[in-house]
TrEMBL record:
It comes from the Eukaryota. It holds the Pfam family I-set. This is Fibronectin type-III domain-containing protein. Residues 92-190, 196-301 form the Fibronectin type-III domain.
Amino acid sequence: MKAGEAAVFEIPFVASPKPTVTWSWRPRTRPDAELGSAQTPRFKADVVSGLTSLPVSKVKREDAGEYSVVISNELGEVTVSIELIVLDKPSVPRNLVASDNTGESVLFSWTEPEFLGLHPDVGVSDGLSYVVEMRESNQRASRSVTVTSELNTLIDKLQVNKSYVFSVAAKNDVGQSEFAETSPVSTKLEYGPPSSPVNVKAVVNPPKASIKDQTIELTWEQPTDQVSASGPVTNFYIELKPEDSTRWQDVSADFTITEPHFTLPTDKLQEFVSYEFRVTSENKAGKSKPSSPSNAVQLGK
């Protein structure tokens, strides 16, 4: 029977003198488990005119087991047993773990539910599938990730330095369990921001010409021992200031700089002003501190 259904166990008998009719129940918690000790069923039995009946209604998984009736008088006794199998949705998955946190992906794993809800002896598959969802921890709505028959799944394309909640429900042919969910999981990279670039150099090319014909060639170095320790550098940002000023100005907002060199247009710079430059590097964990200033260069003839 499926959970929530109803039925009536009816046992007809003929006996004289009048017999005693006693029902008992031995619970079975799982299809492969041993029967428990005999106890009185929670359902009320009835005896009328050579018929005893046990109505079972709104059955739950806890009602599964062997129901027996003993009909006895001074001449003997007869025992009849009926096995009640309750097919139900599974209980929730257990032991949820989010591991191998790279900052952009997490291995989400769990163990199977305590109660699978299925019975292979009655033609119902004993396999489960798992519905996986996720949400940002500051949001209430979840989104679907996958449905799998495995006990783990790799969740990728996560955003660094975000907090997520991962959840999983077990599903069988009867229905789906409630979702079990993790505590908030913060995605953090295994490394931090890069170190600052070094040896920033500026060269005016050509050195003596009209400012409209000149560019500034910038080069720098990223410490190689820090690249492997802090993750690959993805971008560089350049700032400049007049040598006699303390205010730095970003001049790379309109450019994507991925290599340790850059040719800076001079159309927005002034002639005969000495400029210094500094460079900031960036990886997936964040930005470095700015480099030390470059040598000062001056545009014009």
